Amino acid sequence: MIRRLWLTFSQTVTVLLGVALVVGTATDNQFFPSLRSESSADFSTAVSKAAPAVVTIFAQHHVPGEQTEQIGSTWNKSPENEQTPLGSGVIISKDGLVLTNYHVVAAISALNVSLQNGKSYEAVTVGFDIDTDLALLRIKAQDLPTVVMGKSDELRVGQTALAIGNPFDVGQTVTAGIISALGRHGLGLNSYEDFIQTDAAINQGNSGGALINVKGELIGINTAIFSPQNSEGFVGIGFAIPTSLIERVLPSMRAGQSIQRGYFGLIPKQLSKEFAQDLGLSRRTGVMVDRILPDSPAGRGGLLPFDILLSIKGETIKNVNDMLKIISSLEPDEVVPVTVLRGKKTLTLPVTAGHRPTQITDEDDTETVSSTELYFRQ
């Protein structure tokens, strides 16, 4: 009798657990659809929105035909067209504006853009910005597929990221990963660095291509990877220029104008606890003025070496990248309050931003960071 009751009880518990599992699964699917979609890891909708707007960029040049060598003449009777793949690009307007990296198209006079559908167009450079490594091309076409600009300022570490481009000229390729880090800088690649770091596979030929989110929106332009010495293979560390930086320079590039940025003319030094302690500074973190350039806006405004920058125009300075972004966003000739810690005193000085020179070596308002073999562009 006892054995029969125990068997009945165990069967009842098993049935109830099965019902609970079914109900729980249905509830999760009903009330947490995002959880269901994330587990399925199907990004085809996002890719179908963005991929048609991702292009391949070629260098186009003429080579002598066979008859030229046969007759021993420099006259090219039967020239042949050759195309060398340079990288990728993203269509941002229906009338043919293509965004890419400056290093992809630099010093190339004859450019050709190939679309996902196989159509090919000659391209010309409309504008570029060396400091952010961005360039804007135009092709003569209408009603082109375009990508939607996403908001990189809203990204969070751990979110899904998809890279689209043409690595090694094998054809358009999509890779998936996550946002590994935000605000990467000090890599020595560009004057203005605010990179998105991702582990979505990026290889040679991906430069200028799209980094998108799960909605199919553009969140960055793939630019470079970290690779060990004597290797050009991808090891899971890639960098993309965020749309927040792109949108600041895009209007000027569209108009074919040089990018106007504010300029102080100082060399900063990122503080560390050890460095600050060695100098006897009261503040252990932040940005210190290392050097003031001759006849510079910073010098005329009263800034001195060893001043610690606390804020510019009311915005707090935590690191060199913060300082760069704030100064570059200033209008030339704009007067802004700069708060510094000088010894034990806090001072606020009026500094008139200058015009950033177009050609800058070490005389810059950023640390001089030399490129390393560990980083290379794609």
Describe this protein's structure.
With 378 residues, the chain is α+β, with helices and mostly antiparallel strands. The protein has helices spanning 2-31, 33-40, 44-50, 66-71, 102-105, 243-254, 273-279, 297-300, 320-328; strands at 54-63, 80-91, 97-101, 111-114, 120-129, 134-139, 148-149, 160-165, 173-184, 195-198, 210-212, 217-226, 238-242, 262-263, 266-270, 287-292, 308-312, 315-316, 335-342, 345-352, 354-355, 375-377. Strand 4 and strand 5 (120-129) form a beta hairpin. The longest helix is centred in the first third of the chain and has 30 residues, at 2-31. The chain is elongated.
| Strand residue percentage | 25-35%
With strands numbered from the N-terminus, the spatial order across the biggest sheet is: 1-2-3-6-5-4
Q: In terms of structural class, how would the helical and strand content be classed? A: alpha+beta
Number of helices: 9
* Beta strand count: 22
**Could you tell me the mean pLDDT?**
80
What's this entry about, in short?
23% of the residues lie in helices and 34% in strands. It has 378 residues and is of the alpha+beta class.
List keywords for this structure.
single chain, 378 residues, six-stranded antiparallel barrel, six-stranded antiparallel beta barrel, disordered C terminus
